[in-house]
Design a protein that fits this description.
It contains 5 helices and 4 strands. By secondary structure, the protein is α+β, with helices and mostly antiparallel strands. A hairpin with an 8-residue loop joins strand 2 and strand 3.
Length: 114
């Protein structure tokens, strides 16, 4: 997938914030796209979007609905949190824990995840 497409989706998601308050930040890893938020009215300071999730979103038939949901979630989070992540970090931790548990059991699916 083209990184330009990932960036287009990322910019579409963050476009709901006040203009001029969001700036792309160079990331120290290639797995995320990061934005800094500078607004006196918002406690939100950082937006982190995982490239792999954005690639899946691009291919998703319900892409428009999911982007709208993310935009609403970003607006809601901007007034309450300092950091917004997609996907939510708790989902990533849960997926890792699930894969680890499946590996302990020794299921064929878990062995393929390694």
């Amino acid at each position: 997938m083209n990184t330009k497409n990932e960036m287009n989706v990322a910019e579409e998601i963050v476009s709901v914030l006040p203009s001029g308050s969001v700036a792309r930040v160079c990331s120290d890893d290639r797995e995320t796209i990061r934005f800094a938020v500078r607004s006196a009215d918002l406690p939100l300071r950082e937006i982190i979007l995982r490239r792999s999730s954005l690639r899946r979103l691009i291919e998703d038939p319900a892409r428009n609905v999911k982007v709208e949901y993310l935009q609403r979630e970003l607006i809601r989070s901007a007034g309450r949190r300092a950091r917004f992540e997609y996907p939510n970090a708790s989902r990533i931790v849960a997926a890792i824990a699930r894969a680890t548990q499946l590996r302990r059991i020794g299921t064929p699916m878990a062995l393929a995840v390694r």
